[in-house]
Design brief:
Blueprint (H helix, E strand, L loop, with lengths): L3 H13 L4 H8 L3 H13 L12 H37 L13 H14 L3 H14 L2
Length: about 140
């Protein structure tokens, strides 16, 4: 862990930059109550004559690399969501009225509906309606 002086310098610098106590706590990975208490103490003590320069480059590079690593996943999630919305629009365009109804089913069927909807890029409604259609038309 960094020295108390370095932490105090970072605290003071982040506070002067206008960051909230919650943001400072998150950035420095310390409890917010500690930030509050240390800021109170710092307000009572004189500022050091020489403040070592603290670069935010390190913090920014961590965030940038984290976001770069997530971009592919975020693009996939957005594409998946857009496909799901398009599939939902298709079910609404069929002109058939749907409504929410509660039935008790075995957990395995619930899991199967969710899994199949994801695999076929369909809505739960489409999967359940197809299962009901096959069942009732088969009789």
């Amino acid at each position: 862990m960094a020295s108390s002086q370095t932490d105090d310098t970072q605290l003071r610098m982040l506070h002067e930059q206008g960051h909230s106590q919650t943001e400072i706590a998150r950035l420095l990975n310390i409890p917010r109550s500690t930030v509050r208490d240390r800021l109170k103490k710092l307000d009572q003590s004189p500022s050091p004559d020489t403040t070592p320069a603290m670069s935010t480059e390190g913090i920014l590079s961590v965030y940038n690399s984290m976001f770069e690593g997530m971009m592919t996943d975020l693009h996939e999630i957005v594409a998946w969501w857009q496909e799901r919305k398009a599939a939902l629009r298709l079910t609404q365009d069929e002109g058939r009225e749907t409504r929410r109804v509660t039935f008790f089913v075995e957990k395995r069927w619930e899991d199967a509906v969710r899994r199949q909807a994801d695999l076929d890029n369909l809505t739960y409604t489409q999967i359940v309606n197809e299962a009901f259609r096959r069942y009732f038309e088969g009789k």
